[in-house]
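Re: that chain you flagged

S.,

Sorry for the slow reply, it's been a week of failed gels. I finally had a moment to sit down with the sequence you sent. For the record, here it is as I used it:
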Amino acid sequence: MFAVVLVGGFGTRLRPLTNTVPKPMLPIGNTPMVVRLAERLAAGGVTDIVLALGFQPDAFRAAFPGDSLTHDGATVNLHYAVEPEPRDTAGAIKFAADSAGLDDTFIVANGDIVTALPIADLVRFHHALGREATIHLTPVDDPSSFGVVELSNDRLVQQFVEKPAQGQTSSSLVNAGTYVVEPSILDRIPADVPVSVERATFAQLVAEGELAGFSTEDAWIDTGRPELYLKANLAYADSAGAVVRSQVSPSASLSGVVADRATIEDGAVVRNSVLLPGAVIEADARVERSLVWGRVSSEASLTDAVVGQDGVVPAGDYRGARFPEPT
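Prediction finished late last night. Pasting the structure tokens below so you have them in one place:
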């Protein structure tokens, strides 16, 4: 079975981390999130993945040596569809599927979603209902910042309610970013132009009763914002591989930290933070609830901050800052 993975976005909300690296290549628990997604797809029976690329495609090729991935004995082949220009979500799906010659049921997944969804269960549900497409849905505590999905009793999507006001809908289900679709959906998408699958293609399917919804309460995080990317990483903070290949001074204090190839010097304190490869926390610096890829200078105190690969934090107290500031 094929899967199309959408990885062509610019990740603007995570800048400056994404100034030089596409968002799906950022690590979750010291493994690129697109690799974790590929492993989950492989576990669900996917044999081939088409990466729908736009931004920095070479980084993805480096993540999959030999254009393949083997996970728990299953090998997945990687294919690359590089858009000549941005075509939005539906346009990217069509371009990638046409490039690979897909003519059977396939999966579509957003490359920045971290979830424990069993892919095989979604596929079985899709085939059982026999509709043209099925979307994974997940409940959220505050649906006002999402597009909420209302389902009928027979599990068909009735409508999407964009960022509902309190009392506007009783549903708390949102689009969780993984779909199973029939190849006929490609005929609904115009070629070579930007088209949104959420706003255009799914709207057509809803009107014709051809969009099913599969709701689960599996772990799910959209990593598009710094606090959510941090949360996805900190789920691994207590694991055996949370801090790897790093130089940590015996006098440094770490708690709830995920780090790879980082340097943490004498007297530094790091709490509930992620240190990306090459990060340096100098002596007596303090870092809390932050994402650090660059250097935090001695005597600096950093809280709820984001430091890019080339960022340098001077001595001082900083809260909610970004180094360098996104442009």
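What I noticed first: The chain has a mean pLDDT of 91.

Talk soon,
D.
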